[in-house]
Amino acid sequence: MHSHSTHNNGGDRSGVLSLAWAIAQLGWIAGPAVMLLFSFVTYYTSSLLTDCYRLGDPVSGKRNYTYTDAVRSILGGYKVKACGLIQYLNLFGIAFGYTIAASISMMAIKRSNCFHESGGKNPCHMSSNPYMIIFGVTEIFLSQIPGFDQIWWLSIVAAVMSFTYSGIGLALGIAKVAATGTIRGSLTGISMGNVTQAQKMWRSFQALGDIAFAYSFSLILIEIQDTVKSPPSEAQTMKKASKISLAVTTAFYLLCGCMGYASFGDFAPGNLLTGFGFYNPFWLLDIANAAIVIHLVGAYQVFCQPIFAFIEKLAKQRCPESYFVIKEFKIPIPGYHPYKLNLFRLVWRTVLVMLTTVISMLLPFFNDVVGILGALGFWPLTVYFPVEMYIQQKKTSKWSSRWICLKMLSMACLMVSIVAGAGSIVCVILDLKVYKPFKTTY
């Protein structure tokens, strides 16, 4: 494993699998504590957010259909533009992160089989580019399926797949701990023998960004809430759902992260599944990696659909007369309702997917950049806007104890975002020193 992936984590940061790496930077005390803290903050602010779905009255108030709508109707002004920009940048960034992660998993399958056939003699170095292109082409086809709501089975598939791969990662971690009989790792995280003082600091900061990224679902919370049936009021349903899903995710994250750290100690890899090497049981790792790819194929669409919709709406407002933008051609599909083909949608979605693919090929160590995105998105989207909207919505008076607590929460999270961002930026700079575009091999 040469090029960029040696000093850091050649990992997929698709959330769960990078947590062992993050905990290894922070150690047994701070690691789990930070994770619990993030999940608490995310829960608290997402329950503030769910109150912003309807203006005024939670049952009959005017609805806000998207996150940006909520900010527009409650806060207004330049904040709307800032919020939209950050949200779409973040969704766009997730699309890259997923392209890279999927290509790494596809390669891992190919390599583990090639490694197995040669009896471990052939190191099987390969380029990730063809795999990114395969992923991109698949996404071009899928992106032509209009609408979030028409792919209800996607979320079920995604849930099953993420349980599959995290479960396998967890099981392998437990098996490894059981086999060696020791729990590795230390109370304060990675030891000075393996990294310098400065490196340890930057990596701890980057670990915060990683954990923040693992909790970045408030991005699409209001969009999801829009699909919930009422009564009972959507806010109640969503609060219950966020509570359950966060409790489950946190327990799961802690398990996977801690087991991974216990089995690898300081050398916890950026992607838990690549750390178990190409040895046995190699078919189990293949299943896990295949599950990741399937999950990411669907998840990519979930995060891209809001960007597609946004630009298409904009185009319709700007050019309401344009044949290219407006005209829908009906294409009959036997045994199914006709497919509506729209030229603008066809071209624009294809271009966006191609763009994410090309940039992924240019910057394949996107893991650091994902750390930046986690940091960039965490404070404004998960904390700042929900808190501000809540204060507006509930008319909380200035300097009341509630107002002070909310503002302090917001400031604390801003600090976290800043150090996490700085840590990730330093890691990108270090990566650029040893880097040749389009040439990355594993």
Explain this structure.
This protein has helices at residues 19-50, 67-74, 78-117, 129-143, 152-180, 197-214, 221-225, 234-264, 272-275, 282-318, 323-326, 343-362, 366-393, 401-433; strands at 328-333, 336-342. The protein has a two-stranded antiparallel ribbon. By secondary structure, the chain is mainly α. The protein has 14 helices and two strands, in the order αααααααααααββααα. A hairpin with a 2-residue loop joins strand 1 (328-333) and strand 2 (336-342). Helix content is 69%, strand content 3%.
Characteristics:
single chain, 442 residues, mainly alpha, 2 strands, 69% helix
Give the topology.
Elements: H1 19-50, H2 67-74, H3 78-117, H4 129-143, H5 152-180, H6 197-214, H7 221-225, H8 234-264, H9 272-275, H10 282-318, H11 323-326, E1 328-333, E2 336-342, H12 343-362, H13 366-393, H14 401-433
Antiparallel strand pairs: 1-2
Helix pairs in contact: 1-6, 1-8, 1-13, 2-3, 3-4, 3-10, 3-12, 3-13, 4-10, 4-12, 5-8, 5-10, 6-13, 6-14, 13-14
Question: Within the largest sheet, what's the order of strands?
Answer: 1-2
Structural class: mainly alpha
Name the poorly predicted regions.
1-13
Main pleated sheet: 2 strands, antiparallel
Outline:
This protein has 442 residues and is mainly alpha-helical. It is 69% helix and 3% strand.
